[in-house]
Design a protein that fits this description.
Number of helices of chain B: 12
Number of strands of chain B: 0
Strand content of chain B: under 5%
Number of strands of chain A: 0
Number of helices of chain A: 13
Shape of chain B: elongated
Shape of chain A: globular
Strand content of chain A: under 5%
Structural class of chain A: mainly alpha
Order of helices and strands of chain A: HHHHHHHHHHHHH
Helix content of chain A: over 70%
Radius of gyration of chain A: 24 Å
Order of helices and strands of chain B: HHHHHHHHHHHH
Helix content of chain B: over 70%
Oligomer: heterodimer
Distance between the termini of chain B: 18 Å
Chain lengths: 319, 280
């Protein structure tokens, strides 16, 4: 069986595992959903009303029945109703996901735009002062946690320019692209920094490896100019591990960036799940985590396929 | 061991990383042992929000507490959590990875699929979920971070263990009648020390970041105790008035993570036979 097919077969198994895991985990959180949903008002509920609400959300059934009902719904594309939003979970997720997706795309663009040229430059100037500077910057960039970068950016902006990042109501890109970008640019730079650092390090080391290959030496000895050898012969192969790295990072970013969303007050997927956990919004936590895990696995599968497609030497082991 | 130590000192990144790490370990140890310039919890209403001075090197916070003392305690706290969580994760992960590679079949499938499940969760969300179940605290953070990083160690051990298993020296040991547990602990585990060492160093860096992130969200170390994440979170509303409250923990956290990353890089170069020749 070919490797991608094997991965596809494992796919539903892991999704089932994620479902069971998150279902049990969120129910182990102390406190009940009804009280969390109504806050102080829950004290005003008569026992009858409380019972009715519990039954409405199906929380009066045992875990097995609850899981089966939820899971049967999932198979039909119904993730249940969020107790905090009072809306279908799928609707809530689809409201918050575009922001997360946009943030992930912007961060990746920033990371690649800075990372690849810087990495190639460092590799082709190996051991010169400029290479050292790029490496130090990349190392520091990779060692600074994103939320620290975010805090420092907010500080530098407010002190240096007397402006605070626009943290009002979030404007979707479809409504006002300029206002949306003004809101998204800082968080995107924040997340893009560590990402760019990783891309620099990966493209530099990949390029260095490739430059030592025989075919590169052959090309040089045929008299092809150095610049052409680097850009046409070496670069495409050096980019293969960068594609893999970027894909995996992108997969992580699609899961939401809880801390950065928190700092910039963005209603992304990460904060939605955080709030849902704190609110014991069972259906929303289950649905959102399943959604995130699904995206993560799809992205990783695509990365593997891209890897095989880009490098004809790699054919997955067939058993 | 001393040879490895010398190699690390000879490597430029290793030298800087190790020096930084020793400074942090010392600061953290003194902080944990209660040997700080001031009582980290002592409030001095008169000395509120003072900038760095000879009396308070890193200034004071909103309650007039000495930032350096709190930083030392915070570093100690962060390091204790990182060391314990990575210790548990590497131990658990390598046992799971080794046994998965050795027994293969059903056990291998079960272990690796469960690791896939854990990996499909975003790290910080998985940690958050575990912490809300058990309530915030030092040991909950340790447990949460350990669970988050176990799958990585399982994968790092299983791959090499699978190929080692088919090597001649393992077959030879088996024909001599060597017991399974002896082969696993001696022949396999010892050969996995190199990749694990690098991974442990890097995981310590991630654990520091995760711990700081959890504390930043209010789900790690609880006030009035000090931790790097908590200090950063407290600095948010005061950054224009008292920027040192932001810079001090930010730079400390960055340098602490940097020390592990530099050390990890050096160890990778030293322990990887491919780069080893290039260094020599």
């Amino acid at each position: 069986m070919s490797y991608p097919i094997k991965r596809l077969l494992v796919f539903p198994l892991v999704m089932l595992g994620v479902s069971i895991f998150v279902f049990v985990a969120i129910r182990l959180v102390p406190g009940d959903a009804i009280t969390a949903m109504l806050g102080t008002e829950s004290g005003l509920l008569t026992p009858k009303q409380r019972e009715a609400l519990t039954a409405y959300f199906g929380l009066d059934q045992n875990w097995f029945v609850q899981f089966w009902r939820w899971f049967a719904g999932v198979l039909q594309g119904d993730l249940g109703i969020s107790t905090t939003y009072g809306k279908p979970v799928m609707t809530v997720i689809l409201e918050h996901f575009p922001l997360t997706l946009e943030l992930a795309v912007l961060s990746m663009l920033i990371a690649l735009a800075i990372g690849i040229p810087a990495g190639i430059y460092a590799a082709t100037h190996k051991d010169r002062p400029s290479d050292l500077i790029v490496r130090v910057v990349a190392m520091v960039g990779q060692s600074t946690p994103s939320f620290v970068v975010g805090l420092l950016l907010v500080y530098l902006l407010s002190v240096g320019f007397g402006v605070l990042p626009e943290m009002g109501t979030f404007v979707p890109i479809t409504e006002d692209p300029i206002a949306n970008l003004a809101q998204m640019i800082l968080p995107a730079i924040t997340l893009g920094t560590a990402f760019a650092a990783a891309v620099i390090r990966m493209s530099r080391s990949a390029m260095l490896d490739i430059l030592q290959e025989d075919y590169v030496r052959t090309a040089r000895s045929k008299g092809i100019p150095r610049r052409r050898v680097i850009w046409r012969h070496a670069l495409p192969n050096a980019l293969i591990p960068v594609v893999t790295l970027s894909g995996v990072e992108f997969g992580y970013l699609l899961g939401g960036a809880v801390l950065v969303e928190q700092i910039f007050a963005l209603p992304g997927l990460g904060r939605t799940v955080l709030d849902a956990i704190l609110q014991r919004d069972y259906a929303l936590v289950q649905g959102a985590v399943l959604f995130i895990a699904f995206n993560f696995m799809v992205v990783n599968l695509l990365v593997d396929l891209a890897y095989a497609a880009l490098d004809p030497r790699i054919r997955f082991e067939t058993k | 061991m001393t040879a490895l130590f010398k190699d690390v000192l000879r490597h430029p990144s290793g030298r800087i990383g190790l020096t930084l790490l020793i400074v942090f370990l010392l600061a953290g140890f003194l902080g944990k042992a209660g040997i700080t310039p001031y009582d980290p919890l002592m409030q001095d209403r008169i000395a509120r929000l003072q900038g760095p001075s000879s009396a308070h090197w890193f200034g004071t916070d909103l309650f007039g507490r000495d930032v350096l003392s709190r930083l030392m305690v915070g570093i100690g706290q962060s390091f204790v959590i990182s060391f314990f969580s990575v210790g548990i994760a590497s131990l658990l992960g390598s046992v799971l990875g080794l046994t998965a590679a050795w027994f293969s079949g059903l056990w291998d499938g079960a272990v690796m699929r469960f690791m896939d499940v854990l990996l499909a969760f975003p790290a910080i969300l998985l940690a958050l979920l575990i912490i809300t179940i058990f309530g915030p605290g030092t040991w909950t953070s340790v447990l949460a971070i350990a669970i988050v990083y176990t799958p990585i160690f399982t994968r790092v051990t299983r791959g090499p263990a699978l190929s080692l298993r088919r090597r001649d020296f393992v077959d030879a040991a088996r024909t001599f009648g060597t017991s399974r547990s002896y082969i696993m602990t001696r022949h396999l585990a010892l050969n996995l020390v190199a990749p694990l060492t690098v991974q442990i160093t890097l995981a310590l860096a991630w654990a520091l970041v995760t711990e700081a992130g959890l504390s930043f969200l209010g789900l790690g170390t609880q006030p009035p105790n000090a931790s790097l994440g908590l200090m950063l979170s407290d600095a948010r509303n005061l950054m224009e008035l008292a920027p040192w409250l932001l810079w001090v923990p930010a730079i400390a956290l960055m340098l602490a993570v940097l020390s592990f990353n530099l050390l990890g890089d050096a160890l990778r170069d030293i322990l990887d036979p491919k780069t080893r020749r290039r260094l020599a």
